[in-house]
Structure formats: structure tokens, C-alpha cells
From TrEMBL:
Residues 197-431 form the ABC transporter domain. It is a multi-pass membrane protein; Peripheral membrane protein. The keyword Transport applies. The keyword rRNA-binding does not apply. Belongs to the binding-protein-dependent transport system permease family. Belongs to the ABC transporter superfamily. Coiled coil: none annotated. It comes from the Bacteria. Keywords: Amino-acid transport, ATP-binding, Cell inner membrane, Cell membrane, Membrane, Nucleotide-binding, Transmembrane, Transmembrane helix, Transport. GO terms for cellular component: plasma membrane. The gene is yhdY_3. This is Inner membrane amino-acid ABC transporter permease protein yhdY. Pfam families: ABC_tran, BPD_transp_1. Its main location: membrane.
Length: 436
């Protein structure tokens, strides 16, 4: 919304660039000019308007900083679960951002509390002004310093109360030890309709960099595909285009009979049928394991809470992690988190699973537990596309292994043929590096 963004920038930059004392003068003198003739505005109301306008600009920047501090993976995970923009913001992004903004908001409130002494310039008396007036009164019995010490103590206690409240808020939003890791059908050919996934002449650019070059890929139902290749070859970009986490510029992608284009309805329909597991897990750290798994079924599939919880426990048991259902992601090991991520995707009952290097961020001893879970899915007949460097997994599970380099599919073959008799010199060079 460019208009809203522009107006917000103008508002924030203006009020942040004007001193509070000037804002108070403006609210005291100019505010009555906007009211009907004969209408009076209390001085306190004028002061409140000025202070609110001034501090709201600073609070907006604090909130923006909290939103920008969230890793991109949180948005992508929500998008992959088909939560949509508003559900993503209110269920995933804002709860986490609020926790991050609490220290900044508290500092802003404390500064605001101290700046209230400036209201004396428009004829209002704050605590210190009242003390100063009282100490010059002939009936004052104590030393003048006593009044100022008392006023300072009141301010200090008030600030302490703000900090204590902030600590309570932060505890409420941080119940566990968290770690943050650093989102109508068109006419198709008969061949595309018979395939679970069809990519035809797909091209993608990042600026001038041509990252995908005429990718053609057909995936049958229940087929298991492994994509391998050097870093930067376009493997991850290919599968991210399948659920529109990345947008392709040319070619066509059809997923389960749905033409993936700019139609938001088509994108959401595809995402409800395609599960995705990320390299860095991208679990929602403010939710328990069980809540991570029930979020999308409840809000996207409109599943009753009890039914969603039963489904989540079923898949958590399947990936052998049900005993941790009420823990938070930060309390789990990397392998456990990745298994939760797999269970979360399965709770949407997808027809297709995409794996983007699911073991590359794990310690060697944790890799096996994740691979065993993926092998179990393959044995159940799940249609799978997996980007991985685990060649043993490719030999065991894949129906077809695809080698990519420089944005192109160089070679594809069944695993026995691919590993025993690679046709391309580039494929042979790659395998000699990864197979020892």
C-alpha cells in the first residue's frame, strides 16, 4: 500500500524532527484553531495530544525495528503453510515482534514519563513544578531539598514499576529458552494433467543473474526425486518456485493440476497441498511444538481444535517426538526441531513434500534421525522432492536423481545408473568430490 507507506513516512519523519517543546507549543496554540468557534480545550488535553503525536513517531520506529529483526524464514514458513498475509502477521509475526520491541518501548515510555516536566511551558504544573512552588511557600516546614528528593523518588518508583511490568510482559512472551536461527485453473496439456508437478521452460533471474535456465521437470504421483549439485546451481530455487516462495519470470508450473501464476487463490491452493521443510527448521519460537503443528490446520483447514491436536499428536508420534509436544522449539536439539518441522508440514496432509537441504544445518549424529523420518515418508508413497548432498539417502530412496549446475539440469537418471554410469563429465567431477 504505497499511499499508506508514504503517509506513514511523512508523519514519522516530521514528528521525529520537531523538538517536544515545539510540539507542545503547537498543540497548545494551534489545536483550538481546528475546533468550532466557542469550543474550549482543556490544557491537559492539549498537552496529551502533543505528547501522543511526538511519541507515536518514536514508537512506530521501535515497532518497525522489531518487525525487521525477525528472520526471513519466519515469513517463508508461514507462507508455505498457506496462512496468508493477515494470519501470518497476527499469528506469527506480531507476537514475536512484540517481544523484541519491549525493551525499546519501555525506554520510550520512561523517556516520555521524564519529559512530562516540559508541560510547564504551556501552563501546566507537573510534580517538580509543584514541589518548587511549595518550597517557596512560607508555610513550608522542611528543607527545600526534601521536596526535590521526594519528587525524584516518585519518578524513580514509577520508572521501576515500568521496568517490572516490562519484565512480566517479556516473560509472558518468552516462556521457553528460545533460539532464533541466523510465508483459477487454466487449460493444460494432457501430460501436465497426468503429472503431480510439471515445470516447462521455467526461467528465473535475480537482477541480471540468470539463476534458472529452461528448467523442464515432470514428477509423477508418489515419485521421489533428489536434486543435487554444487552450491548456487539453482536446486533450492527450483523447489522454492514450486510453492511460489520464489517467483519465476518465464515458463509455466503446474502443481496437482493447478497452474501456478500470480493469482493469489491459485498460490494458496498449491500451498495447502505442498508441504515444505527448510534448512534452518523455521519453527515459530513463540509457540510450543503442539501449537506449531496445529496452527495451519486450525486456521487454514478450519479444523476443530481437538481434531487438530489429535492429528498433530499422531504425526509427532510418527516422527518419534510426541513426548516433547509441550516444549518450545528452543528447548530441542537441531534434529528434534527438524523432525517437528516435518510433522508440522504433514499436519496439513499435503500431497507433495519439498525438502530444502533438511540435514545441512545439523550435527552429523543428528542427521540419521532426520533421514530415517524421511525414509519412512518415502516408504509410505509420499511424492517428494529433496535437495540434499546426502548421496546415501539418494541411493536408498530416490526414484530419480537430478544433477543441476549453473541453473540447468545437466543429467537425470535412476540412482543405480546415475551413480554407476554418469554420462556428463561435470556430473562425474561432482560425484568424485562428494563420494569418498
Amino acid at each position: 500500500m504505497p499511499v499508506v507507506r508514504t503517509l506513514s513516512v511523512i508523519f514519522i519523519e516530521f514528528w521525529r524532527g520537531v523538538p517536544l517543546i515545539t510540539v507542545l507549543f503547537m498543540s497548545s496554540v494551534m489545536l483550538p484553531l481546528f475546533m468550532a468557534e466557542g469550543t474550549t480545550i482543556d490544557k491537559l488535553v492539549r498537552a496529551l495530544v502533543g505528547v501522543i503525536l511526538f511519541q507515536s513517531a518514536y514508537i512506530a520506529e521501535v515497532v518497525r525495528g522489531g518487525l525487521q529483526a525477525l528472520p526471513k524464514g519466519q515469513y517463508e514458513a508461514a507462507e508455505s503453510l498457506a496462512l496468508g498475509y493477515w494470519k501470518t502477521q497476527f499469528l506469527v509475526i506480531l507476537p514475536q515482534a512484540l517481544k523484541l520491541t519491549i525493551p525499546g518501548l519501555v525506554n520510550t515510555i520512561i523517556a516520555l514519563f521524564k519529559d512530562t516536566s516540559l508541560v510547564i511551558i504551556i501552563g501546566l504544573f507537573d510534580l517538580f513544578s509543584s514541589v518548587q512552588q511549595a518550597t517557596v511557600d512560607p508555610t513550608w516546614l522542611g528543607m527545600s531539598t526534601e521536596g526535590y528528593v521526594f519528587a525524584a523518588l516518585v519518578y524513580w518508583i514509577s520508572v521501576l514499576a515500568c521496568r517490572a511490568t516490562a519484565s512480566i510482559w517479556k516473560s509472558a512472551f518468552t516462556p521457553g529458552v528460545h533460539r532464533t536461527e541466523v510465508y483459477m485453473t487454466h487449460s493444460m496439456t494432457n501430460s501436465a494433467e497426468a503429472m503431480m508437478i510439471s515445470l516447462e521452460n521455467v526461467n528465473k533471474w535475480y537482477g541480471q543473474f540468470h539463476v534458472l535456465k529452461d528448467i523442464n521437470l515432470q514428477v509423477k504421483p508418489r515419485e521421489r526425486i533428489v536434486l543435487c549439485g554444487p552450491s548456487g546451481s539453482g536446486k533450492s530455487t527450483t523447489i522454492r518456485c514450486i510453492n511460489h516462495l520464489e517467483e519465476h519470470q518465464q515458463g509455466r508450473i503446474v502443481v496437482d493440476g493447478i497452474h501456478l501464476n500470480d493469482d493469489v487463490r491459485n498460490i494458496e491452493r498449491v500451498r495447502t497441498e505442498v508441504g515444505m521443510v527448510f534448512q534452518h527448521f523455521n519453527l515459530f519460537p513463540h509457540l510450543t511444538v503442539l501449537q506449531n503443528c496445529t496452527l495451519a490446520p486450525t486456521w487454514v483447514r478450519k479444523m476443530p481444535t481437538k481434531e487438530a491436536e489429535a492429528l498433530a499428536m499422531h504425526y509427532l508420534q510418527r516422527v518419534r517426538i510426541a513426548e516433547h509436544a509441550h516444549k518450545f522449539p528452543g528447548q530441542l536439539s537441531g534434529g528434534q526441531q527438524q523432525r517437528v518441522a516435518i510433522a508440522r508440514s504433514l499436519c496439513m496432509k499435503p500431497k507433495i513434500m519439498l525438502f530444502d537441504e533438511p540435514t545441512s544445518a545439523l550435527d552429523p549424529e543428528m542427521v540419521k534421525e532426520v533421514l530415517d523420518t524421511m525414509i519412512g515418508l518415502a516408504e509410505d508413497g509420499m511424492t517428494m522432492l529433496c535437495v540434499t548432498h546426502e548421496m546415501g539417502f539418494a541411493r536408498t530412496v530416490a526414484d530419480r536423481v537430478i544433477f543441476m549446475d549453473r541453473g540447468e539440469i545437466v543429467e537425470q537418471a535412476p540412482p543405480q545408473e546415475f551413480f554407476a554410469h554418469p554420462k556428463s563429465e561435470r556430473t562425474r567431477a561432482f560425484l568424485s568430490q562428494v563420494i569418498h
